[in-house]
Design goal:
Layout (H helix, E strand, L loop, with lengths): L6 H13 L2 H8 L3 H23 L3 H8 L2 H23 L2 H8 L2 H13 L5 H19 L10 H26 L5 H20 L9 H22 L5 H8 L1 H14 L5 H31 L2
Helix pairs in contact: 1-11, 1-12, 2-11, 2-13, 3-5, 3-10, 3-11, 5-9, 5-10, 6-8, 6-9, 7-9, 7-12, 8-14, 9-12, 13-14
Length: 298
């Protein structure tokens, strides 16, 4: 079935918005990094694999695809994404980690150009620059002098860059290999990270804290958002998906502000407004370009 040219952008926007409460739910759980990694991975993996088992009509072909190099790459990307993000948030300043993750559109553009030969338009680069500026204002603007360059900050920055790289590679590979089974591969990656987090935490310590936020984000928020974002990467360049994913970086803290009553600084609100406005202008421009192309084609 032929999709509307804006289908990929719309699906990516939906996935990014669904993901925004994730940070708030993580805070509500009062768990450490490895413990969250365990719960999130086990819940997400179980939901994704169950959905694949019930809905897939090509299970043998899916399993065969999962056993290929590209399939293993997606599983590894999902495992590393969960592990690096959980460990970074647990040990480094959140602002440093988020700024590292904010480079995902740059990695997506570079991987898309290098692996698929996709041209990155000037409007995309301008939007990437504007979005990263807004995120920099949001996460660093209100904390001048509080974030020092130490071992924890350095490791957090490296982990954030690692998360950005594996997310971007995930989107680009799925666009290049449309036959890969998204639910199966993401489910396997999530399950691997969940089992690792559970083993390192210890089964006796896993029930500590609030379990329901982790079940909600792991069983609902993450499966819906990551499936939507990954599927969207097959219908629009990975750089577009990555740009919309950055909505979670600025809207996530706003959920924390609204639900947990934590103060949102003026600079955070300003940075968030820059990100949202930049993405809105970019999406409107993309819609205008698509409609103009359709009219020219008759």
């Amino acid at each position: 079935m032929r999709r509307h040219p804006l289908f990929g952008l719309g699906l990516a926007l939906f996935g990014a918005l669904v993901l925004t409460p994730d940070a708030m739910l993580m805070r509500l759980s009062q768990m450490d990094g490895l413990q969250m990694m365990g719960w999130r991975g086990l819940c997400m993996g179980t939901v994704m694999l169950t959905g694949w088992a019930f809905l897939s009509r090509t299970r043998r072909a899916d399993i065969a695809a999962a056993a290929t190099g590209f399939g293993a790459m997606i599983v590894l990307c999902q495992t590393l994404n969960s592990g690096l993000f959980s460990m970074a948030i647990a040990s480094a300043p959140v602002a440093v980690v988020l700024f590292g993750v904010a480079t995902v559109p740059v990695f997506s553009a570079l991987f898309g150009w290098g692996l698929l030969g996709e041209r990155v338009h000037l409007a995309t680069w301008i939007t990437i620059a504007a979005v990263m500026t807004g995120i920099g204002i949001a996460v660093f603007g209100g904390h001048t002098g509080e974030i020092g360059f130490d071992r924890a900050s350095a490791l957090g920055a490296v982990a954030g860059l690692g998360v950005a790289a594996v997310l971007a590679l995930n989107f680009v590979v799925l666009r290049a290999q449309p036959g890969l089974p998204i639910a199966l591969l993401i489910g396997l990656g999530a399950l691997c990270s969940g089992m690792t987090g559970t083993i390192l935490t210890g089964t006796g310590a896993m029930p500590d804290g609030q379990i329901w936020p982790m079940v909600l984000t792991g069983a609902v928020v993450l499966p819906i958002s990551f499936f939507s974002l990954s599927f969207a990467a097959r219908h629009t360049p990975a750089s577009n998906v990555s740009l919309l994913l950055l909505l979670e970086t600025v809207l996530g803290p706003l959920w924390v502000w609204l639900i947990l009553d934590e103060t949102a600084s003026p600079t955070m609100l300003l940075g968030g407004a820059i990100v949202v406005l930049s993405l809105a202008v970019y999406l409107l421009n993309e819609r205008r370009v698509v409609l103009r192309r359709r009219r020219s084609l008759g």
